[in-house]
User: Fold this.
Amino acid sequence: MKQHIKILIALVATILQITVVAQNILYVKNTEGTVNKECAISLGIDNSESFISFQCDVVLPEGFSYVSESIALSNRSTDHVISATNVSNDTLRILSYSLNNAQFLGDTGVIATFKVTTPNEVGDYLIRLKNGIIGDDESTNIIDSLVNGNVVLKPLGINNPEKPDIDINVYPNPFGRVLNIRINKQDINWIEINTYSANGTLIRHLRKTSNQNGAFSIQFNPDELLGRTATNGVYYIHFQYKKRNKIYSMVKKIIYKKP
Assistant:
């Protein structure tokens, strides 16, 4: 018993000695966008100390361009000003400060947003930060870390889907001679199938209607889905279906490899 008490006392002493390290972090918030469109990028600051200014260089992926004069502060600012300047083809320098040394409000969340134009290729893109500064009222840089963010670009014509309530499986994937689509559905009025190229171009528009419950399968050859001139690569299938007067949506990525 005494041994257990000694162990417990030692554990408590260890816990009391632990010091929580405060952090001041400047980060890019992950987001989604569409190819060949404008996309909003958000910068956030989580801070354990008060600050009056910040600065960073945002390195944009190839094909992204800053939309002029789109930079804006969030409601965490008071009398602060902000500017964004292209310092190179791919780097945007953002600077914000207060002429009256006013502090930014709060200790977490979005601090500023800006817009970029996106390229015509779907995929995941990394937005990098460098040369970060979070300045306090004594002109000291109190930043602890910079955190990069991702932008996921989807094809044109595909809206953000609502939470689907059916299972749709495509196989094999990658496919060559035939692609199987198995749909486990309940009380669906109709289901629509569209295929898109990697740059968001609509290739095929199909609709399969059925009023039966349960699961059913559809097979497509490459010509039916992608056209006779299809080349190896990434494509997208957009499923849209109606259930009880409400439209739902789902996107599946497929890879075609000629047999």
In short: The chain has two domains: 22-154, 167-256. The chain has two helices and 19 strands. The first strand starts at residue 25 and ends at 28.
